[in-house]
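We were asked to recover a plausible sequence for a given structure. The inputs and outputs are reproduced exactly as logged, with field labels preserved.

PROBLEM: sequence recovery
POSITIONS: 85
GIVEN STRUCTURE:
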């Protein structure tokens, strides 16, 4: 679920801080690596996997708030512009 939401977010991530986008891309890359290793029956470092999951959960919590804040700002800008017309 996280990967689907983050991929959707990345389509309009240019509206958000580049640092957040980099973190999101990095966590997705790590998740894909863990998935590949699991399917290939390769060893997975538990500490790295736990850190990745914690990062994923943190980003997943931040995502809705960031989107709401940006939408609020865009709406305010829209209202300001249309009030002048």
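RECOVERED SEQUENCE:
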């Amino acid at each position: 679920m996280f990967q689907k939401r983050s991929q959707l977010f990345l389509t309009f991530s240019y509206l958000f801080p580049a640092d957040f986008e980099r973190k999101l891309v990095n966590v997705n890359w790590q998740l894909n690596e863990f998935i590949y290793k699991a399917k290939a029956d390769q060893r997975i470092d538990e500490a790295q996997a736990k850190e990745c999951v914690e990062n994923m959960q943190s980003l997943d919590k931040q995502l809705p708030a960031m989107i709401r804040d940006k939408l609020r700002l865009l709406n305010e800008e829209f209202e300001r512009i249309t009030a002048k017309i």
